[in-house]
Design goal:
By secondary structure, this protein is mainly alpha-helical. It has three domains: 83 residues, no CATH class; 113 residues, no CATH class; 87 residues, no CATH class. The protein is built from 16 helices and four strands. A two-stranded antiparallel ribbon has the order 1-2. Strands 3-4 form a two-stranded antiparallel sheet. The longest helix is centred in the N-terminal third of the chain and has 28 residues. The termini are far apart.
Length: 355
């Protein structure tokens, strides 16, 4: 009765009455958890549309204040009290599966539920409403809380077949200037783990997975993909070219990487074809062996452009754009390949049959 009467006074005409009532209710709510729940239960009984607008707004404001205060206390204990029951933080048990459970993941999760209070319940429960995915390019790159929420939601909602959300998120993560760019080291570590979890679950083309993995430090995933592709000569030329470039970037085992690159120095298959838009409008073709030679030169400290790769375009992730390591004519290709080997054997190999 006392609580109900005090709540009713939140809609009083006099400001002093409303203020005194709010102070009393806060005092009751801070006594113990039972009293806090009793106050919040009355405040939640707040139907819309309201019959009394002042009372409706007063109940809404006070409920938000109490829930925010309760959340701050729980977050503080979650971060600093080893005896705290982590199950009292909705969503943490699910989040930790994808982001780890160290202090860095806890800090990111705490920031997440402070910025998006309902996300833990929504994503931590099988009955929670799905997160509506926004235009990824509209999100600030350093808004780690929002990116964390969207990555977590994408992992939870990932499907076996590719959909529009997967396509848009993949495109954003592949592109420098898109996707998350955390400012703090602990945020970068957690985002890297979340992206690794996403890459292993979402239906993403392996070429995109390698590029995203390189960008966000998912080295183990990239190395596994490179090994699988580069030890299978039947893989598509486009995948082989991307894998060679990615393997050269991570370079976990330089001798193994060199062996992979050398093994494709006689692969005449075409990986990319493109036509320049500026006159003269020439057609360029990139063969697998072209990329192998360019990487061999690069890894030996030689700029491929000095050996005939005139169309070369730098790439912030793969070092070189795969398509740009080709030639507009067989003569230009021959000039680059003939006599440019850094090994003792000829890199040209037999010409493919004609006709």
């Amino acid at each position: 009765r006392q609580i109900a009467a005090l709540v009713a006074d939140l809609g009083a005409d006099l400001f002093t009455t409303r203020q005194r009532s709010e102070i009393r209710l806060v005092d009751i709510a801070t006594r113990d958890s039972g009293s806090a729940e009793a106050v919040k239960a009355v405040l939640r009984d707040n139907p819309f549309p309201p019959q009394d607008l002042e009372l409706f707004l007063g109940k809404k404001r006070l409920l938000e204040r109490l829930e925010s205060s309760d959340r701050e206390v729980r977050i503080d204990r979650f971060l600093h009290d080893p005896s705290f029951d982590q199950r009292l933080i909705p969503g943490w048990e699910q989040f930790r599966q994808f982001a780890g459970d160290g202090i860095d993941a806890r800090l990111v999760f705490a920031a997440l539920i402070q910025h998006h209070p309902q996300v833990g319940r929504r994503l931590g429960s099988p009955d929670g409403a799905p997160i509506q995915m926004p235009d990824f390019d509209s999100i600030d790159r350093d808004d780690t809380a929002t990116w964390t929420m969207l990555l977590w939601a994408s992992i939870q909602q990932s499907r076996r077949t590719i959909d529009d959300t997967s396509i848009r998120l993949t495109a954003s993560l592949c592109r420098v200037g898109g996707g998350p760019e955390p400012l703090r080291d602990h945020e970068r570590r957690v985002v890297s783990r979340l992206i690794a979890s996403y890459l292993t679950r979402a239906p993403i083309d392996v070429r995109d997975r390698m590029v995203i993995g390189l960008r966000y430090g998912c080295t183990e995933i990239v190395h596994q993909d490179c090994r699988q592709i580069l030890t299978d000569p039947s893989e598509s030329p486009s995948r082989i070219v991307t894998a060679m470039l990615a393997a050269s970037v991570i370079d976990l085992s330089p001798s193994e990487t060199d062996q992979w690159i050398n093994s494709f120095l006689t692969d005449w298959r075409v990986s990319h074809v493109w036509r320049s838009m500026m006159p003269p409008k020439t057609t360029h073709r990139t063969q697998v062996r072209d990329v192998a030679l360019a990487l061999q030169l690069h890894r030996s400290g030689i700029d491929p452009r000095t050996r005939g790769f005139e169309a070369l375009v730098a790439d912030p992730i793969l070092v070189f754009r795969p398509y740009s390591l080709g030639f507009e004519s067989d003569d230009a290709r021959s000039r680059a390949h003939d006599g440019k080997s850094l090994t003792d054997h000829s890199i040209r190999g037999p010409r493919p049959p004609t006709g």
